[in-house]
Amino acid sequence: MEIRNYKPADEKGWVRCRVLSFLDTAYYDDVHREKETFENPSIELVAIEDEQVVGLIDIEYDTKDEKVCSEEGTGGMIWHLAVHPDFQGRGIGTALMERAVEEAIKLELEFLEAWTRDAGHSADWFEKNAYRKVDEYYHLYLSDEDMAHSVQPGDDNLQPLYMFAQYTGDDIEQFDSIERKYKCMCYIRNL
């Protein structure tokens, strides 16, 4: 396996790797048809095996003029970290992370920040890799049935079929009947 900088020719493999790695996670519907580009500078790495993208990590980082991260100081936001499901459990994610940490240290970043959901193994993975939880809120996916009981649109011509929402309040229990409810947690790794 080789870890190297992302190249535009990797885009199709990058998209496939990301989509497949997210299928069995709480992010299964976060599908993109092309690779995201960033306004700020970024660290973009891929893991290649047999000429296939088997892992990826993208970190957009703060500049003195533009803040990406929520914490004070100069940091990097991990937007994507994924390993193709056929290659998981081989240390590819850890290898990508450690290479990204090396690059971040060269750039004099002070920390890396990542947001993830409580479903699956990603929160445990971040904790095992020297990250600490510093914040949290909830993502809610409301079906048309959920909204019929809790959301009243102001326009009778507007009939929402589903809604994605962020909840930062203290009364999450009011949404106990919603099937897709995820705690989103922010993890920080000091460099």
From TrEMBL:
PROSITE patterns: GNAT (PS51186). SUPFAM superfamilies: Acyl-CoA N-acyltransferases (Nat) (SSF55729). InterPro entries: Acyl_CoA_acyltransferase, GNAT_dom. Residues 1-152 form the N-acetyltransferase domain. Coiled coil: none annotated. This is GNAT family N-acetyltransferase. It comes from Jeotgalicoccus nanhaiensis.
